[in-house]
C-alpha cells in the first residue's frame, strides 16, 4: 500500500508517528491487492485532526477523527475504516451471490440471465460556468431549491460542486483534474 502523510495547519509529523501510521495501515493491506492511503494530520486550535482516505480500484474509504492526541486519533480512525471495508466486502459478496467469480468478469453481452437495461439520459442541460464566490453559490442553491450546484470558484479558478447535506449543512467538492 502506498501511503502519503501530509501535514497541515502547522502540525509536524514525527518519525515515531509516521512509523506508527505505516505499521497500523499495513494491517489493512490484507483487504487490498493495490491501494493508496492518504493521511492528513492537521492542528486546529488545541485539537489535532486526522483524516485517512484509502482508495482501491475506484472505491474510497474515509475516516476523520479529531482529538487532543494524534496517536489516539489513529486508534479511533483505523477501526472505522476496517468496518467500512468489511461492510463493503460483505455487500459486494452478497450481490455476487451464487456462481463462480469468473462470471463477474465476463463482458456485458456474455452475462447469462436477464439483462437489466441502463436508463437513458432523460434530460441534458448545457450552461456556461461563470466565476462565483462560495457565498454566491450557496445563495444560488437556496434560490433554485436544488440539492447541488456546479460552479467555477472565483477564488481558486477550479470547478466546484456545492451540495446540501441531509443535516442541512453544505458540503463542497473541489474537483482535481
Regarding quaternary structure, what we see is single chain
Biggest sheet strand order reads: 1-2-3-4
The N- to C-terminal Cα distance equals 23 Å
What is the ordering of alpha helices and beta strands? EHEEEHEHEEE
What is shown here, in short?
Helix content is 28%, strand content 31%. It has 177 residues and is an alpha/beta fold. Helix 1 (15-26) packs parallel to helix 2 (70-96).
Would you mind describing this structure in some detail?
This protein is of the alpha/beta class. Helix content is 28%, strand content 31%. The strands form 2 sheets. The protein has a 4-stranded mixed sheet, covered by helices on one side. The chain is globular and about 50 Å long. Residues 98-112 have low confidence and may be disordered.
How do the helices and strands line up, and which of them pair or pack?
Layout: E1 2-8, H1 15-26, E2 36-44, E3 47-56, E4 59-67, H2 70-96, E5 131-132, H3 134-144, E6 148-153, E7 159-164, E8 170-174
Parallel strand pairs: 1-2, 5-6
Antiparallel strand pairs: 2-3, 3-4, 6-7, 7-8
Helix pairs in contact: 1-2
List keywords for this structure.
single chain; 177 residues; alpha/beta; 4-stranded mixed sheet; 28% helix; globular
Amino acid at each position: 500500500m502506498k501511503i502519503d502523510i501530509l501535514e497541515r495547519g502547522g502540525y509536524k509529523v514525527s518519525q515515531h508517528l509516521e512509523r506508527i501510521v505505516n505499521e497500523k495501515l499495513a494491517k489493512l493491506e490484507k483487504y487490498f491487492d493495490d491501494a493508496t492511503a492518504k493521511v492528513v494530520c492537521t492542528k486546529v486550535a488545541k485539537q489535532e485532526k486526522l483524516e485517512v482516505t484509502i482508495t482501491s480500484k475506484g472505491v474510497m474509504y474515509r475516516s476523520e477523527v479529531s482529538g487532543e492526541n494524534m496517536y489516539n486519533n489513529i486508534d479511533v480512525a483505523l477501526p472505522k475504516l476496517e468496518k467500512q471495508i468489511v461492510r463493503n466486502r460483505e455487500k459486494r459478496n452478497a450481490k455476487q451471490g451464487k456462481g463462480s467469480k469468473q462470471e463477474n468478469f465476463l463482458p456485458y453481452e456474455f452475462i447469462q440471465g436477464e439483462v437489466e437495461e441502463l436508463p437513458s439520459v432523460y434530460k441534458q442541460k448545457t450552461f456556461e460556468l461563470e466565476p462565483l464566490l462560495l457565498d454566491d453559490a450557496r445563495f444560488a442553491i437556496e434560490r433554485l431549491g436544488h440539492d447541488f450546484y456546479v460552479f467555477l470558484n472565483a477564488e481558486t479558478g477550479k470547478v466546484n460542486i456545492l451540495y446540501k447535506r441531509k443535516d442541512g449543512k453544505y458540503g463542497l467538492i473541489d474537483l482535481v483534474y
